[in-house]
Amino acid sequence: MTELGNRLKEARKEKGISLDDLQEMTKIQKRYLKNIEEGNYDSMPGKFYVRAFIKQYAEAVGLDPETLFEEYQSDIPRTEQEEFPEQLSRVQTSSKRAAPDTFKMMNVLPRILVVAAIIAILFLLWFVVYKLAGHNTKEKLNSGTSGNVSVQKDNVKSAEKVSSGKNTGSSSEKNAAKAPKKPEAKTKKTTQKLETVSSSGYTTTYKLAGTNQFKLELKANGGRSWVQVKNSDGSTNFQQLLNDGDSRTADLSKQKQVTITVGNTVNTEVYINGKKLKYHIPTSKEVRQDMIIQFNGSQTK
Protein backbone atom coordinates (compact mmCIF):
# COMPACT_ATOMS: atom_id res chain seq x y z
CA MET A 1 0.00 0.00 0.00
CA THR A 2 1.34 3.46 -0.94
CA GLU A 3 1.34 6.48 1.39
CA LEU A 4 -1.32 8.11 -0.79
CA GLY A 5 -3.54 5.02 -0.65
CA ASN A 6 -3.15 4.84 3.12
CA ARG A 7 -4.04 8.55 3.46
CA LEU A 8 -7.22 8.12 1.38
CA LYS A 9 -8.23 4.96 3.24
CA GLU A 10 -7.82 6.63 6.65
CA ALA A 11 -9.88 9.64 5.52
CA ARG A 12 -12.63 7.29 4.30
CA LYS A 13 -12.75 5.42 7.59
CA GLU A 14 -12.80 8.68 9.57
CA LYS A 15 -15.90 9.68 7.59
CA GLY A 16 -17.45 6.27 8.27
CA ILE A 17 -17.78 5.55 4.54
CA SER A 18 -17.57 1.98 3.23
CA LEU A 19 -16.24 1.04 -0.22
CA ASP A 20 -19.82 0.26 -1.30
CA ASP A 21 -20.96 3.72 -0.17
CA LEU A 22 -18.00 5.33 -1.94
CA GLN A 23 -18.82 3.42 -5.12
CA GLU A 24 -22.36 4.84 -5.07
CA MET A 25 -21.07 8.38 -4.39
CA THR A 26 -18.38 8.46 -7.09
CA LYS A 27 -19.87 6.00 -9.64
CA ILE A 28 -16.44 4.31 -9.67
CA GLN A 29 -16.38 0.52 -9.48
CA LYS A 30 -15.44 -0.91 -6.10
CA ARG A 31 -12.44 -2.84 -7.44
CA TYR A 32 -10.90 0.38 -8.82
CA LEU A 33 -11.38 2.12 -5.46
CA LYS A 34 -9.64 -0.80 -3.75
CA ASN A 35 -6.78 -0.66 -6.28
CA ILE A 36 -6.28 3.04 -5.48
CA GLU A 37 -5.98 2.30 -1.76
CA GLU A 38 -3.52 -0.53 -2.42
CA GLY A 39 -1.52 1.47 -4.98
CA ASN A 40 -2.21 -1.20 -7.64
CA TYR A 41 -2.39 1.18 -10.62
CA ASP A 42 -1.50 -1.48 -13.21
CA SER A 43 -5.03 -2.90 -12.94
CA MET A 44 -6.62 0.48 -13.76
CA PRO A 45 -7.99 1.30 -17.28
CA GLY A 46 -5.20 3.84 -17.91
CA LYS A 47 -2.93 6.52 -16.40
CA PHE A 48 -5.50 9.21 -17.11
CA TYR A 49 -8.16 7.28 -15.15
CA VAL A 50 -5.83 6.94 -12.14
CA ARG A 51 -5.65 10.72 -11.67
CA ALA A 52 -9.38 11.18 -12.36
CA PHE A 53 -10.43 8.44 -9.93
CA ILE A 54 -8.05 9.70 -7.20
CA LYS A 55 -9.50 13.20 -7.60
CA GLN A 56 -13.09 11.92 -7.20
CA TYR A 57 -12.08 9.70 -4.24
CA ALA A 58 -10.39 12.66 -2.48
CA GLU A 59 -13.35 15.00 -3.02
CA ALA A 60 -15.76 12.35 -1.70
CA VAL A 61 -13.84 11.96 1.59
CA GLY A 62 -13.24 15.70 2.06
CA LEU A 63 -9.61 16.00 0.91
CA ASP A 64 -8.13 18.57 -1.49
CA PRO A 65 -7.05 16.63 -4.64
CA GLU A 66 -4.58 19.31 -5.79
CA THR A 67 -2.75 19.18 -2.46
CA LEU A 68 -2.60 15.38 -2.65
CA PHE A 69 -1.24 15.46 -6.22
CA GLU A 70 1.52 17.82 -5.14
CA GLU A 71 2.36 16.03 -1.88
CA TYR A 72 2.31 12.47 -3.29
CA GLN A 73 3.55 13.24 -6.79
CA SER A 74 5.94 10.27 -6.76
CA ASP A 75 3.08 7.82 -6.01
CA ILE A 76 0.93 8.91 -8.97
CA PRO A 77 1.78 7.81 -12.55
CA ARG A 78 2.41 10.64 -15.00
CA THR A 79 -0.06 11.24 -17.84
CA GLU A 80 0.72 12.08 -21.45
CA GLN A 81 -0.24 15.73 -20.83
CA GLU A 82 2.55 16.09 -18.20
CA GLU A 83 5.13 14.60 -20.58
CA PHE A 84 4.14 17.03 -23.33
CA PRO A 85 6.44 19.95 -22.19
CA GLU A 86 9.51 17.71 -22.67
CA GLN A 87 8.45 16.94 -26.23
CA LEU A 88 7.76 20.64 -26.82
CA SER A 89 11.32 21.58 -25.80
CA ARG A 90 12.70 19.18 -28.42
CA VAL A 91 10.52 20.79 -31.10
CA GLN A 92 11.69 24.27 -30.09
CA THR A 93 15.34 23.15 -30.31
CA SER A 94 14.85 21.80 -33.83
CA SER A 95 13.10 25.04 -34.88
CA LYS A 96 16.14 27.04 -33.68
CA ARG A 97 18.39 24.89 -35.87
CA ALA A 98 16.22 25.65 -38.90
CA ALA A 99 16.35 29.42 -38.23
CA PRO A 100 19.63 30.11 -40.14
CA ASP A 101 18.12 28.71 -43.36
CA THR A 102 15.16 31.05 -42.92
CA PHE A 103 17.44 34.09 -42.53
CA LYS A 104 19.31 33.14 -45.71
CA MET A 105 16.03 33.03 -47.61
CA MET A 106 15.02 36.46 -46.24
CA ASN A 107 18.29 37.97 -47.52
CA VAL A 108 17.80 36.59 -51.04
CA LEU A 109 14.09 37.50 -51.29
CA PRO A 110 14.54 41.31 -51.85
CA ARG A 111 16.86 40.66 -54.82
CA ILE A 112 14.34 38.32 -56.39
CA LEU A 113 11.59 40.94 -56.00
CA VAL A 114 13.74 43.66 -57.64
CA VAL A 115 14.50 41.44 -60.66
CA ALA A 116 10.82 40.54 -61.01
CA ALA A 117 9.83 44.24 -60.91
CA ILE A 118 12.34 45.14 -63.67
CA ILE A 119 11.03 42.34 -65.90
CA ALA A 120 7.43 43.52 -65.34
CA ILE A 121 8.30 47.13 -66.31
CA LEU A 122 10.09 46.04 -69.50
CA PHE A 123 7.13 43.87 -70.49
CA LEU A 124 4.72 46.79 -69.90
CA LEU A 125 6.78 49.15 -72.11
CA TRP A 126 6.90 46.59 -74.91
CA PHE A 127 3.14 46.04 -74.69
CA VAL A 128 2.38 49.81 -74.93
CA VAL A 129 4.67 50.29 -77.96
CA TYR A 130 3.17 47.25 -79.71
CA LYS A 131 -0.38 48.52 -79.21
CA LEU A 132 0.41 52.03 -80.49
CA ALA A 133 2.11 50.70 -83.64
CA GLY A 134 -0.81 48.39 -84.41
CA HIS A 135 -3.36 51.18 -83.87
CA ASN A 136 -1.67 53.54 -86.38
CA THR A 137 -1.57 50.80 -89.04
CA LYS A 138 -5.30 50.09 -88.68
CA GLU A 139 -6.19 53.81 -89.07
CA LYS A 140 -4.33 54.02 -92.39
CA LEU A 141 -6.08 50.94 -93.79
CA ASN A 142 -9.54 52.05 -92.66
CA SER A 143 -9.26 55.57 -94.15
CA GLY A 144 -9.12 54.22 -97.75
CA THR A 145 -12.06 51.81 -97.52
CA SER A 146 -14.47 53.65 -95.21
CA GLY A 147 -16.94 54.47 -98.04
CA ASN A 148 -17.41 50.89 -99.24
CA VAL A 149 -17.59 49.55 -95.73
CA SER A 150 -20.37 51.97 -94.71
CA VAL A 151 -22.56 50.94 -97.69
CA GLN A 152 -22.04 47.25 -96.95
CA LYS A 153 -22.88 47.79 -93.28
CA ASP A 154 -26.21 49.45 -94.20
CA ASN A 155 -27.14 46.51 -96.44
CA VAL A 156 -26.22 44.01 -93.77
CA LYS A 157 -28.28 45.85 -91.12
CA SER A 158 -31.41 45.91 -93.32
CA ALA A 159 -31.05 42.19 -94.02
CA GLU A 160 -30.65 41.49 -90.31
CA LYS A 161 -33.85 43.40 -89.51
CA VAL A 162 -35.87 41.31 -91.97
CA SER A 163 -34.48 38.01 -90.71
CA SER A 164 -34.89 39.03 -87.08
CA GLY A 165 -38.57 39.78 -87.68
CA LYS A 166 -39.14 36.27 -89.06
CA ASN A 167 -37.22 34.57 -86.29
CA THR A 168 -38.87 36.49 -83.44
CA GLY A 169 -42.13 34.58 -83.66
CA SER A 170 -40.56 31.14 -83.92
CA SER A 171 -37.98 31.77 -81.19
CA SER A 172 -40.63 33.03 -78.77
CA GLU A 173 -42.73 29.92 -79.40
CA LYS A 174 -39.71 27.67 -78.80
CA ASN A 175 -38.81 29.51 -75.60
CA ALA A 176 -42.39 29.19 -74.37
CA ALA A 177 -42.35 25.45 -75.06
CA LYS A 178 -38.96 24.97 -73.39
CA ALA A 179 -39.78 27.12 -70.34
CA PRO A 180 -39.42 24.88 -67.29
CA LYS A 181 -42.27 24.48 -64.91
CA LYS A 182 -41.92 26.30 -61.63
CA PRO A 183 -41.15 23.89 -58.82
CA GLU A 184 -43.80 23.52 -56.17
CA ALA A 185 -43.10 25.16 -52.86
CA LYS A 186 -41.35 22.75 -50.53
CA THR A 187 -42.27 22.35 -46.91
CA LYS A 188 -39.79 24.03 -44.60
CA LYS A 189 -37.53 21.56 -42.80
CA THR A 190 -37.28 21.74 -39.05
CA THR A 191 -33.89 22.63 -37.61
CA GLN A 192 -32.47 20.63 -34.72
CA LYS A 193 -31.41 22.74 -31.72
CA LEU A 194 -29.48 21.65 -28.62
CA GLU A 195 -29.51 24.46 -26.06
CA THR A 196 -27.80 24.63 -22.66
CA VAL A 197 -30.39 25.11 -19.90
CA SER A 198 -28.15 25.10 -16.81
CA SER A 199 -24.76 23.95 -15.54
CA SER A 200 -23.55 23.17 -12.01
CA GLY A 201 -20.40 21.33 -10.90
CA TYR A 202 -19.81 18.55 -13.40
CA THR A 203 -23.51 18.37 -14.49
CA THR A 204 -24.96 20.21 -17.50
CA THR A 205 -28.64 20.22 -18.57
CA TYR A 206 -29.47 20.54 -22.28
CA LYS A 207 -32.76 20.85 -24.19
CA LEU A 208 -33.13 19.05 -27.54
CA ALA A 209 -35.74 20.65 -29.82
CA GLY A 210 -36.63 20.96 -33.50
CA THR A 211 -36.65 17.19 -34.11
CA ASN A 212 -38.89 14.21 -33.43
CA GLN A 213 -36.07 11.71 -33.00
CA PHE A 214 -33.30 11.27 -30.44
CA LYS A 215 -30.52 8.93 -31.59
CA LEU A 216 -27.40 8.83 -29.41
CA GLU A 217 -23.88 7.66 -30.27
CA LEU A 218 -20.95 7.52 -27.82
CA LYS A 219 -17.50 6.97 -29.33
CA ALA A 220 -14.10 6.47 -27.66
CA ASN A 221 -11.37 8.37 -29.51
CA GLY A 222 -7.81 8.44 -28.20
CA GLY A 223 -8.24 6.08 -25.25
CA ARG A 224 -10.68 4.06 -23.18
CA SER A 225 -13.77 5.54 -21.54
CA TRP A 226 -16.53 4.32 -19.21
CA VAL A 227 -20.04 5.51 -20.18
CA GLN A 228 -23.55 5.10 -18.76
CA VAL A 229 -27.03 6.11 -20.02
CA LYS A 230 -30.13 6.26 -17.79
CA ASN A 231 -33.76 6.57 -18.97
CA SER A 232 -36.45 9.00 -17.77
CA ASP A 233 -37.59 6.61 -15.00
CA GLY A 234 -34.03 6.26 -13.64
CA SER A 235 -33.46 2.78 -15.04
CA THR A 236 -30.13 2.05 -16.73
CA ASN A 237 -30.35 1.88 -20.52
CA PHE A 238 -26.75 0.66 -20.79
CA GLN A 239 -23.29 1.07 -19.23
CA GLN A 240 -20.04 -0.01 -20.85
CA LEU A 241 -16.26 0.47 -20.86
CA LEU A 242 -15.43 1.54 -24.44
CA ASN A 243 -12.00 0.75 -25.83
CA ASP A 244 -10.28 3.20 -28.19
CA GLY A 245 -12.25 3.23 -31.47
CA ASP A 246 -15.35 1.53 -30.02
CA SER A 247 -18.79 3.16 -30.20
CA ARG A 248 -22.24 2.50 -28.73
CA THR A 249 -25.57 3.71 -30.14
CA ALA A 250 -29.09 3.92 -28.71
CA ASP A 251 -32.49 5.14 -29.94
CA LEU A 252 -33.90 7.34 -27.15
CA SER A 253 -36.77 8.90 -29.12
CA LYS A 254 -39.36 7.62 -26.61
CA GLN A 255 -37.58 9.14 -23.59
CA LYS A 256 -38.47 12.58 -22.24
CA GLN A 257 -35.23 12.94 -20.27
CA VAL A 258 -31.94 11.04 -20.44
CA THR A 259 -28.87 11.21 -18.17
CA ILE A 260 -25.52 10.49 -19.86
CA THR A 261 -22.45 9.89 -17.68
CA VAL A 262 -19.01 10.04 -19.34
CA GLY A 263 -16.04 8.91 -17.24
CA ASN A 264 -13.39 10.44 -19.53
CA THR A 265 -14.64 13.36 -21.63
CA VAL A 266 -11.16 13.90 -23.11
CA ASN A 267 -11.38 10.61 -25.04
CA THR A 268 -15.19 10.48 -25.58
CA GLU A 269 -17.22 12.01 -28.44
CA VAL A 270 -21.00 12.42 -28.04
CA TYR A 271 -23.22 12.56 -31.15
CA ILE A 272 -26.96 13.39 -31.12
CA ASN A 273 -28.74 12.60 -34.39
CA GLY A 274 -25.36 12.58 -36.13
CA LYS A 275 -24.29 16.00 -34.81
CA LYS A 276 -21.31 16.21 -32.43
CA LEU A 277 -22.07 17.68 -29.00
CA LYS A 278 -19.69 20.33 -27.69
CA TYR A 279 -19.10 19.96 -23.95
CA HIS A 280 -20.37 23.04 -22.11
CA ILE A 281 -17.88 22.41 -19.29
CA PRO A 282 -14.23 22.28 -20.53
CA THR A 283 -12.79 18.77 -20.35
CA SER A 284 -9.66 20.19 -18.72
CA LYS A 285 -11.79 21.38 -15.79
CA GLU A 286 -14.02 18.33 -15.29
CA VAL A 287 -12.93 14.96 -16.70
CA ARG A 288 -16.04 13.11 -15.56
CA GLN A 289 -19.28 14.83 -16.58
CA ASP A 290 -23.03 14.17 -16.37
CA MET A 291 -25.26 15.47 -19.18
CA ILE A 292 -29.05 15.64 -18.77
CA ILE A 293 -30.88 15.85 -22.13
CA GLN A 294 -34.49 17.08 -21.98
CA PHE A 295 -36.48 15.97 -25.04
CA ASN A 296 -40.09 16.16 -26.25
CA GLY A 297 -40.31 14.84 -29.80
CA SER A 298 -43.90 15.96 -30.34
CA GLN A 299 -43.00 19.67 -29.97
CA THR A 300 -40.79 20.47 -32.96
CA LYS A 301 -40.02 24.08 -33.88
From TrEMBL:
<feature type="transmembrane region" description="Helical">
    <location>
        <begin position="112"/>
        <end position="133"/>
    </location>
</feature>
<dbReference type="InterPro" id="IPR001387">
    <property type="entry name" value="Cro/C1-type_HTH"/>
</dbReference>
<dbReference type="Pfam" id="PF13413">
    <property type="entry name" value="HTH_25"/>
</dbReference>
<keyword id="KW-0472">Membrane</keyword>
<dbReference type="InterPro" id="IPR010982">
    <property type="entry name" value="Lambda_DNA-bd_dom_sf"/>
</dbReference>
<dbReference type="InterPro" id="IPR050400">
    <property type="entry name" value="Bact_Cytoskel_RodZ"/>
</dbReference>
<keyword id="KW-0812">Transmembrane</keyword>
<dbReference type="InterPro" id="IPR025194">
    <property type="entry name" value="RodZ-like_C"/>
</dbReference>
<keyword id="KW-1133">Transmembrane helix</keyword>
<feature type="domain" description="HTH cro/C1-type">
    <location>
        <begin position="8"/>
        <end position="68"/>
    </location>
</feature>
<dbReference type="GO" id="GO:0003677">
    <property type="term" value="F:DNA binding"/>
</dbReference>
<protein>
    <recommendedName>
        <fullName>HTH cro/C1-type domain-containing protein</fullName>
    </recommendedName>
</protein>
<feature type="region of interest" description="Disordered">
    <location>
        <begin position="141"/>
        <end position="196"/>
    </location>
</feature>
<dbReference type="Pfam" id="PF13464">
    <property type="entry name" value="RodZ_C"/>
</dbReference>
<feature type="compositionally biased region" description="Polar residues">
    <location>
        <begin position="142"/>
        <end position="153"/>
    </location>
</feature>
